[in-house]
Amino acid sequence: MVVKTLQSSQEQQLPWVETPLRESYALSQAAGCRIFLKLETLQPSGSFKSRQRFRGIGNYILRRLEELPANIATIPHIFCSSGGNAGLAAVHASRTLGLPCTVVVPTSTKPLMVAKIKAAGAYECVQHGAAWADADKYMREVLMPSAGSSAIYTPPFDHPDIWCGNATVMHEIAAQMPSSPADIVICSVGGGGLLNGVAQALDQLSLASHTTVIGVETSGAESMQAALKAGQLVTLPKITSQATSLGCARVTQQTLDYALRMKVRSVVLPDAEAAMGCWRLADDERIMVELACGVNVALCYDGRLERALGRKVRPDEKVVIVLCGGSNVTVDMLAEWRSEYAYLEEIGETREAEIPSVPSAVTGGKRGASRPQGLQDVFAYGAEAKL
Known about the structure:
Shape: globular
Family: Belongs to the serine/threonine dehydratase family.
EC number: 4.3.1.17
Number of strands: 11
GO molecular function, one term: L-serine ammonia-lyase activity
Largest sheet: 7 strands, mixed
Radius of gyration: 20 Å
CATH architecture of the largest domain: 3-Layer(aba) Sandwich
Number of domains: 2
Cofactor: pyridoxal 5'-phosphate
Number of helices: 15
Catalytic activity: L-serine = pyruvate + NH4(+)
């Protein structure tokens, strides 16, 4: 029986790891408080979305398999639309269960990510449409019908089972954090699946009133901040950020509800500063991450965290950054970003009098690049001061 075979596969192979929580002394020195890194980049797919059984995508797939009739005779076929990381996670989870997985990504997804999805063993990786919504519609209306009853639709972020899986990130952090809970958790926001999981876990752990959540987006993909400003869901007309993993034009209703109730701090950074976070993390911790993750790390440098909070940080405050994606990055990409956005290092130097010495400053990139006109300032929803 197909179901028995799947159950046996689930029992024998679980492609997940409990990721470490590591204090970073370099980033702590830069930020002026204690910075801890939750290393979700060590998951099999390089992203928090991959963790089988306990993280979002894997948990969702297992729940759908449990719902299949006992007498099913056809092998389920997983279909996942994605900007990249969710699709890669779906392929890893599906392969472990011996299932085929088709992934559909927009044309904006980088060739590197498409190649990784194919190399991971995707049944097929299709590129269609300018944005994730276009890819998702094409998959559901054109590709899935041909698979008939064997097709299992797998959303990248918008489902309670995905949020439940992602909630275990915060449960692990709570168990790993020494002596007292985290004061602040920083996570990036695309469609809101990770933030929903973090917020859900804080409720479960009775920490919602203690721990501040900062949700970070890149300029050109700031769908959560647009919703917070409007007080209702907003669909962005276009995604212009290079951080394609965050390229969702509309967050979930649950994300907006959590953000309003928990007073989540919403921060938007331009791609340039996300890139800066990537190369400085590589300098300071020898960890490579993509733009969608580097945008979180950028808050540690040049006073950005204090401006995001609208106050001074305390040296004993414990801040956890969820390092959520390390798939869509190479050494060459880091070098290109550093060359293109070198002016950010010069801007950082002007704040040396008020900011502690930043370790990566000694290995700064090419100097002399001018700052582009109209570069968006960083800003926090609910903060009085611009960042």
